Structure formats: C-alpha cells, structure tokens
Amino acid sequence: MSATPSVLARLRGTVNVLYREMIKFGVVGAVAFVIDIGLFNLLRRTVLQGPGTGVLSNAVISTIISAAVATVVAWVGNRMWTFRHRRNRPVAHEALLFALTNGVALLLQALCVGITNQFTAGETGWVAENLAKMIGIALGTLFRFYAYRKFVFSQEPLEDTSPLSD
C-alpha cells in the first residue's frame, strides 16, 4: 500500500511541473508575441510598405524580421526562466536546437502570411495580414512548446519547490 502515495505524489509533481512550465512559457510567449506583432506592424507601416515582389513580399520579409527578433527574446526568457531547471546540454548545442525549432515555427508564420498575400495578389489588408500572422504564430507556438520540451530543454526537471519562482 505504500507504493500508491508515491505514485500519486510523482504524478502530482509531474503535473505541477508541466503546469508551471506552461504558465511560464505563456508569459514569455506573450512578451515575444507583443514584440513580434508590434515590430511586424511597425515595419509594414514604415520601411516595408506595399506589396513587394515575388515570394518574398514585404509582408513575408516583415514576418521574418519580427519573428527573428521575438525569437531572441523568447530564447532568453525560456532559457533563463521557463526551462532553466532542465539544463542538460552546452549552451551552443541548446541554442542551435532552439534556432532550428524556431526556424520551423518562423516558416509556418511566413507560409501563412505568404499564402494570404499570394491569394490576394499582394493587396492584403491590415486585418488579413495580422490574422494570417496570428494563425502562423499559433501553429508555431504549439510546435515550439512540444519541441522545447522534447528536444531543446529535454532533461528531466530538477527538484523544484516554489510554484513560479524559477
């Protein structure tokens, strides 16, 4: 009978860690989201106005730049706070996996914006561009959370005692 509390305690601990990671990931993601959307719209309304040419339209270029800046913010936040209790690789290896993961997420965003731009012959409105970007961000976020836990910050968590203080 003594095994039951141990199994329940381990399950509770696992759920607790997952819950805390999800909250922290959400906070870091919210900050990165504001930077991504804000910079995207700033670029689209200033230096990258208009449709641009070909596959790399100004909207797609804006997406790539804003997502890259947001990725740097997310790297720092996730490494230093969200998943800091999962360190298991040299920082360069972890950074490379993080960059590859975010490269896939960035491609999802660029595809959503690019497809929207192609179907509207570059005459996409502000709302359509932002909706396409947000759909891309949502798809990328789902992929990133899975990939960060599975590949980038994959080591089992270290002992943690406080809910959100990491």
UniProtKB/TrEMBL annotation:
Signal sequence range: none
Domain GtrA/DPMS transmembrane: 24-153
Major location (coarse): membrane
Keywords from the UniProt entry: Membrane, Transmembrane, Transmembrane helix
Transmembrane segment boundaries: 21-43, 55-76, 96-119, 131-148
Entry keyword annotation includes Transmembrane helix: yes
Gene Ontology cellular component list: plasma membrane
Keyword Iron on entry: no
InterPro entries reported in the protein's UniProt record: GtrA_CellWall_Glycosyl, GtrA_DPMS_TM
Entry membrane topology: Multi-pass membrane protein
Compartments where found: Membrane
One GO-annotated biological process of the protein: polysaccharide biosynthetic process
Protein family per UniProt: Belongs to the GtrA family.
Descriptive protein name: GtrA family protein
